[in-house]
């Protein structure tokens, strides 16, 4: 009997507790409204951008460009990519809304990243792109894309003259590349020089400074040819090397052969004139050679005109004296 009364009181207590719990929940709903809708209206639950993403990106022509947009608390909103210059919608979600299939939206389920990928970008693709979220009002974040043409450069003239037995020293720069090249290869014609079996060849590459040097010791005529520097992230550059057997050393210094060779020609002409008589000086052949040398030197640099004047002034008294002697002899 006592046990039965205890069970009845226990059931009654549980029933009263349930009623009190329901009353409390109803009262909270009346005071605060719908909890779930209140949660979504909270500013802490609204989508927002993660500003850790790079907002300015430099890409190389022909190599894919990636613009990474991170959105927190996205919920059921959609992310779109828009080209700002013409307000063209490129992608919505992972769908592409342009006929230019180079544009693609990349997203992994469950992640906060929405990446715009541009395959084979061109300089005309440079500009601002907006990552937009379909909130009300909409929120967006701009990204600047710079598409550059990266070209390698070999220091010095495009044509070099090296004396036989001297060292060939070529330096290549890939400074326009936004990232250090993973490799820089040297070619002579189509033959790779980095791993050449010929002795005396050394390639020194520094990725951080984006430079590479090709060193060839004791060059011979077989080392003449077209040398190409080809970085992984840049267009190649070439130089033509001539190895000469030392007949005219002045014409073999790093390709500065134009002025040097003309100076040599003028020097030979003056020496010939000083050895000959006045009649030879006034001969058509000598005048032709002298004028030809003067014209070419003047086209190269105006400084050599002064040298010509000095040289002629030094030779003229001697030539005049020889002329007088010849006239007296007659």
Automatic annotation (TrEMBL):
Gene Ontology cellular-component terms listed: neuron projection membrane
GO BP of this protein: synapse organization
Cross-referenced CDD domains: Ig
Coiled-coil blocks: none
InterPro entries per UniProt: Ig-like_dom, Ig-like_dom_sf, Ig-like_fold, Ig_sub, Ig_sub2, Ig_V-set, Zig-8
Matching SMART domains: IG, IGc2, IGv
UniProt entry keywords in alphabetical sequence: Membrane, Signal, Transmembrane, Transmembrane helix
UniProt keyword annotation of Transferase present: no
Annotated signal sequence range: 1-33
Lineage top rank: taxon: Eukaryota
Record-linked Gene3D superfamilies: Immunoglobulins (2.60.40.10)
Boundaries of every Ig-like domain copy: 47-134, 137-240
Transmembrane segments annotated in the record for this chain: 297-316
PANTHER family for this protein: DEFECTIVE PROBOSCIS EXTENSION RESPONSE 4-RELATED, DEFECTIVE PROBOSCIS EXTENSION RESPONSE DPR -RELATED
Name used for this protein in its record: Protein sidekick-1
